[in-house]
Write a structure and sequence with these properties.
alpha/beta, 10-stranded mixed beta sheet, two-stranded antiparallel sheet, 271 residues, single chain
Length: 271
């Protein structure tokens, strides 16, 4: 079935997908996601959203259609970068006359977050693995063609909503979430949404240094699960660690896999 924008200025418009293997967020899951974001009062003209593993850009496009002020799309695939630009142009986004800004970054997701690490030494080490960047003049849309997160400005500009829809079998969720939880790209009160397969077992209720990310929702939609975390705390958002248990793993049946979060387990020092 084709993907379409659910609400806002581009409501009903078909989202074109890149001509590469892609597992986009299902329509019903995207609708559930934005229902939660509306419930948390997270979408406004002051909101900055980060769409990671953007693919066609359906999440960021939906947010722009609903009037958020800033959207940044991150994907490693050149085909995805091109498709996001095409969808933006087709939908007339950013909205003319609105104070919306859009950036598209071709980047490895984990390095994107690591370069904006709260740990300065870690950020510098990640930056050394990446080269320079080229910037295209795309009119109202800024396109950064490189893996350098810091090219978005001299200081990381934090986001209010971060959505990650990684390819299930190609990503180490523990490594990815360590990078996200330790990133300066998260504003206090930011909502972080992670899509993952039910077979993986439940995501943990807290993530990051000093439990920086705290679980608020963990909802299943068929094989897909959406885990929602808040960075530190946010007014009107209640923490629900009870939703993050292995009931999801038990429902997964015989094909359930072990939880892929080795990086959150503390190793004993060697003698």
């Amino acid at each position: 079935p084709s993907l379409r924008i659910v609400a806002g200025s581009a409501r009903g418009r078909k989202v074109v997908s890149p001509d590469v293997y892609l597992r986009p967020m299902m329509q019903k899951v995207r609708e559930a996601l934005f229902s939660m974001l509306v419930q948390f009062d997270a979408l406004s003209d002051q909101c900055a959203i980060l769409d990671v593993f953007a693919g066609s850009g359906s999440v960021g496009l939906e947010a722009l259609s609903r009037g958020v002020g800033r959207a940044v799309f991150v994907d490693m695939s050149p085909a995805s970068i091109t498709t996001v630009r095409q969808n933006l142009a087709s939908f007339g986004l950013p909205t003319p006359g609105a104070a919306q800004t859009v950036e598209i970054v071709q980047s490895d997701a984990i390095n994107f977050f690591r370069q904006a690490a709260l740990d300065t030494a870690a950020a510098q080490a990640a930056a050394l693995t990446l080269g320079g960047f080229e910037e295209e003049d795309g009119g109202p849309v800024r396109v950064v063609t490189a893996a350098s997160a810091m090219d978005l400005g001299p200081q990381p500009r934090p986001f209010d909503v971060v959505v990650l829809t990684p390819p299930y079998e190609e990503i180490d969720y523990g490594e990815m979430m360590d990078a996200v939880a330790g990133s300066a790209y998260l504003a206090e009160g930011a909502l972080v949404v992670v899509e993952y397969p039910v077979e993986m077992g439940s995501m943990p209720p807290t993530l990051g240094p000093n439990g920086r990310l705290r679980g608020v929702r963990n909802r299943r939609y068929g094989r897909t699960v959406l885990a929602v975390y808040v960075c530190q705390q946010r007014e009107g958002v209640d923490v629900r660690p009870e939703e993050f248990d292995d009931i999801l793993l038990r429902r997964g049946g015989k094909n359930a896999k072990k939880n892929k979060f080795p990086s959150r387990q503390k190793k004993e020092p060697e003698a």
